[in-house]
Amino acid sequence: MIKILCSDKDKFRFISNLVTSSDDSFIFKHFFYFDSIKSTQDFAYELLKDSDDFYASVIISDFQTGGKGRKGPNWASPIGGIWMSLALETNLKTHELFRILILVTRLLCQSLESHTKLKTMVKWPNDILVNGKKVAGILLDAEVEGDSIKQVIVGIGINSNNDLDSTKLLIKDKNIEVYDYDITTIKYENQNIGISNHDFIHFFLKRINDAFPKLKSSVFAEELTAYYKIKIMESQKHLKYRFSIGGNKFRGEIIKVYNDGSLLVKNLESNHYDDLIKINSAYDLSNL
């Protein structure tokens, strides 16, 4: 059953065109598109909590007053960007959650590169960069039962056409830590030429619809993992990584990316040249 709830006619027209251009196998059935909301991720969570029947859902908002990042604090989500959460059902095991991250990572990179001439980078574990500056991020929340993932909420934030200076001021006002790299927008990096957010979302949703059912395939998972490993290792040519163990921060070199997204890192600030450290994946739920 298709359900569409939008705040204006243009949004409704966009979602209607998306639905009518898809066949019955389109996995998304419920669509919510707001002018403003506290958090698309929180809204998706409430949908899952309050509903007895699950329907794969898309939640989009022009603006978020309390957008979230991977480490919890609010993130700036001004008008012009793409702020979206996807609620999906899956039969993956807890140790396979990482597959969802690397699928979304690859599809976002491909979507961005197909709409511009920009080259993407991926900073471990879940940030997408252009010219060494963050342009998009991914957040995963999972509903777990035993060793299985029942549902997952994929949060996606993209600095597409939002004003860069205003976004930086919002980040400063929220006292958000911007790690070891700057932020940017697609428009700024694309010679001040914006993209159509609707075209981008349409392109991305079509591709995740085609790819998501393949996640149980070990062959497909190996393909995704190989792509992610290459992206992470390539990022070191342009970025300096800092890691934290027990509250102690240090500059490190990634030696190896494991299949679960964990890392083997050389501590570049240690007196011991062969001081290697394992950095655990944030997306392995198997020990919960």
From TrEMBL:
CDD domains hit by this protein: BPL (cd16442)
Listed EC numbers: 6.3.4.15
GO cellular component entries: cytoplasm
InterPro entries assigned: aa-tRNA-synth_II/BPL/LPL (IPR045864), Biotin_CoA_COase_ligase (IPR004408), BPL_LPL_catalytic (IPR004143)
Annotated keywords: Ligase
Pfam family, one: BPL_LplA_LipB
Record protein name field: Biotin-[acetyl-CoA-carboxylase] ligase
